[in-house]
Amino acid sequence: MINESRLPKLFHCLKEYSGELFVKDLVAGITVGLVALPLAMAFAISSGVAPQAGLATAIVAGFLSSLLGGSRAQVSGPTGAFVVVVGGIVAKYGLDGLHIVTLLAGVMILVLGLTGLGKAIEFIPRPVVIGFTNGIAVLIASTQLKDFFGLSVLHVSTEFLGRMFNLWDARATVDWPTVTVASCSLVVILLFRKFVPRVPWAIVALFGATAAVAWLKLPVDTIGSRFGEIPRGLPRPSLPPFRVELVGVLLGPAVTVALLGSVESLLSAVVSDRMTKDKHDSNTELVAQGVANIVSPVFGGIPSTGAIARTATNVRSGAQTPVAGIVHSLLLLLIVLFAAPLAKYVPMAVLSSILLVVAYNMGEWGEIRGIVRLSKADSAVWLVTFLLTVFADLTVAVQAGMILAALLFITRVSSTTVVTEVDRHYVQEGEEHSLQGKDIPEGVRIVRIQGPFLFGTTSKLEEVLARLDSMPPVVVVRLRNMTAIDATGMQALEDFAQAVADSGRHVLFCGAQKQPRQFMERGGFSEVVGEDNVCPNVDTAIVRANEILAKSTQP
C-alpha cells in the first residue's frame, strides 16, 4: 500500500484544486519566472559555465523539484551557494567533471530522502550554517568585482586572496562606461527593493540596463561578446561521459554539493512553511532534489537546490501550490524557445550588480550579532567556519565546523551532569517549580522540554506545533528540566513563540535553569518574546496566564 504522506505535495494539493487557485499560481509562477531569468544566467556565468546551463537547470530541475517535491511553494534552480564550489570544479576538472559531480550529488541526496535520513541535516548547528552562508556571500561578491568595474584580467584566481591580488593589480584597467552601467543598475535595484518591493527588481534592472546599452551604444561587455548567441531550446539530452578515474577524486566535491543542496533546500522549505503556514516533508523534498540533480546534467545543467529568495518571491506573489513552481519553469522554457537570442544584448555589468545584491541578501548578516552574544564557543564555531569558507574551501569549512560543533555538543551535554547536596533551599526551590498541587486554569496548556535542547533535537517542538490548532489561548513552555541549550535550540524556541503568536495565542516560558537562563539572557531571548512572557517559575507563569485570560474575557 502506498504511504500517501510520502507522496509529493502536488498530489495532496490537486485534491482540492480549483480555477481560482490556478489563477493565483499562474500569476506567482510568471512573477518568479521573470525573477529567475537573470539569476539563472548570472549564477551560471559566475560558476564558470555558459548562461544557457543556468537556464537549463532552472527549467529542468525547477520543474522536477516542484512536480515531485514535499514543499507547497518551494522554487528550485541554480543558487549562489554553489557558485564557488562549481567554479572550482570547472576550473580543475572541466564540464565533464562538473556533470559527474552533479550526478553523484543527486544520487547521494536521493539516498538521503529514500532512507529517511533527511532529518540528519538537522544535526548541522546554526553557527555552522550561518558561518558558511556568510563566507559564500563574501566569495560571490568577490567574483563580481571584475565585471562590475570592467577590469581586464587575463587570469583570475579561484582562491579568495589570489583573486583579490589579481583584481588589485588590474585596478588601472577600470572601464568607466561599465562602472556607470553597473552603478546605475545597482541604484535602480536598491530603489525598487525599498519603494516598490512587489515589482521584480532583477528583471527591471536587466531590461533597463540592456535597453540603455543598446540605445546609447555603450562599449561594454555583454553576454554575446563573451559567450556568443544563446541557442534556442534545451540541449539534446545525453549522459555525461563517465570517467572512472575521476570518480574517487570527485567524491569529496560531490559530498559538498550534496550537503549544500540538502541544507539549502530544507532551509528554503522551512522559509516556505513559515510564510504559507504549511508543513513540508523533508524526505520527499530530498527525493525530488536528488532526481532533479540526476537529470540536470543530462541537459547540460549544473547543481540545483531550493532557492530561498525565489521561494519567498513565489509566496509573496500569491503562490498556493507547487503548480506555481511548474509555471515558473514553463515560462523560462518559452523564453528559451522564442527569445533566447535576445539574451546576447544583456550587459555583464547588470548581472554583476544583481549578484552583489543577492550576495548581500543571502549573508544573513543580522544573525552574526546574535551568535556573538551567545557564547565564545558558538562565536568560535561561526568564525572558524566563516574563515575557512573564505580562505580555504567549503568542504574543509563544513568539516571543521562540524567537528567543533560536536566537541561543543559533548561539552554542553557533560555540563548537564551535576552533583547537588539536598538542603532546605533545594526542597523549597523544587516546590516552586513542581506542578503537583498547582491549579492550572482551563485556558492554559503546559508543555515541557526535558533534557538538552541542542541542534538535532529541536524538531521535537514540531510535534507540539502540529497540534497547535487544538491548543487553548495560553501555552506555557516549562523549561525546568531543559538542562542545556545552544544557538539552534534558542532559534527554535523563538520560531515556536512566533508560530504561537501568529495563531492568535499567547506563549509563556518558565523555570529555565542556570545554563539555559544565562545563555538566553545573552542572546536577548526576552527581547524577542517579551519580558513579561519569561517567568522564573511555574507559579509566576500561572499568575501571568490568569492575567492574560482575564484581559481576553473583558468586553
Distance between the termini: 53 Å
Low-confidence stretches: none
Largest beta sheet: strand ordering: 3-5-7-8
Q: Structural class, from secondary structure content?
A: mainly alpha
Domain count: the total is: 2
Envelope shape: globular
Overall average pLDDT: 84
Q: Helical amount among residues, as a percent range?
A: 55-70%
For the CA atoms, what is the radius of gyration? 25 Å
> What's the tally of helices?
23
3D architecture notes:
- It is globular and about 80 Å long.
- The protein is mostly helical and 555 residues long.
- It is built from 23 helices and eight strands.
- Strands 3-5-7-8 form a four-stranded parallel beta sheet. Strands 1-2 form a two-stranded antiparallel sheet. The chain has a two-stranded parallel ribbon with strand order 4-6.
- It starts with 8 loop residues before the first helix and ends with a helix.
- Helix 2 (19-46) packs antiparallel against helix 3 and helix 4 (83-114) packs across helix 11 (282-295).
- The relative contact order is 0.15.
- It folds into two domains: 19-217 and 240-362, no CATH class; 440-553, STAS domain (Transcription Regulator spoIIAA).
Keywords:
555 residues, mainly alpha, Transcription Regulator spoIIAA, 4-stranded parallel sheet, two-stranded antiparallel sheet, 23 helices
